[in-house]
Amino acid sequence: MKKKSIKDKEQENNWEEKVVQVKRVTKVVKGGKKLSFRAILIVGNEKGEIGVGIGKASDVIGAVKKGVTDAKKHIINVPLTKSYSIPHPIEGISGAAKVILRPSAIGSGVIAGGSTRTVLELAGVKNILAKQLRSSNTLNNARAVLNALSQLRTFQNTAQNRDINIERLFNM
Predict the structure, then answer these.
(1) What is the pairing mode between strands 128-133 and 110-111?
(2) What angle separates helix 138-150 from helix 114-123, to the nearest 10 degrees?
(3) pLDDT tens, N- to C-terminus, the chain (172 residues)
(4) Residue of 36, 149, 137 lying closest to 90 (CA atoms)
(5) DSSP 3-state assignment of 14?
């Protein structure tokens, strides 16, 4: 079976891209200051696949393009429940940022702020409660959410890890 390239994956899924932040950054060099742009992008298909990427270039368009390719390289799968929530509460950490994610009732919507909200919406999560702690850094908060979502486990995963069937897992 042939390996799927990034272009094949791109055609299969309808990826939605959102630019979370574009910053003007400078680097001091011998001749003065060199100006460039840093773009933070989130790419998702609202079906449980999500990625966060960064792009740096001398112009904004180039930074966004690099950010999209970087985000598509770092895509993770998110297990969603039937109510488009997460299976269990979880915490994620990236740098100084800490994010707490909790499943919520049907119809409650995405209760989150900043880049956390964008990541969760593009992942396809529709009912969740999230809280950002310790840091307001956009990139670290987005990565903390990605860290938390990558740690999520379903009942099937837990049963396989323990080498028992799902019925026994519920009866414990």
Answers:
(1) parallel
(2) 40
(3) 455 565 655 556 689 999 999 999 999 999 999 999 999 999 999 999 999 999 999 999 999 999 999 999 999 999 999 999 999 999 999 999 999 999 999 999 999 998 999 999 999 999 999 999 999 999 999 999 999 999 998 878 888 888 888 887 777 6
(4) 149
(5) coil
| Domains in the chain, CATH or no CATH each | 6-76 (3.30.160.20), 78-157 (3.30.230.10)
| CA atoms in the 13 A half-sphere facing the CB of 108 | 16
Task: Find residue 44's DSSP bridge partners.
Answer: 16, 50
How many beta carbons lie within 10 A of that of residue 90, not counting itself? 18
> Does residue 158 sit in helix, strand or coil?
helix
Distance in angstroms (rounded) separating the CA atoms of residues 36 and 147: 28
In the numeric block, the tokens 């999209």 are attached to: 68
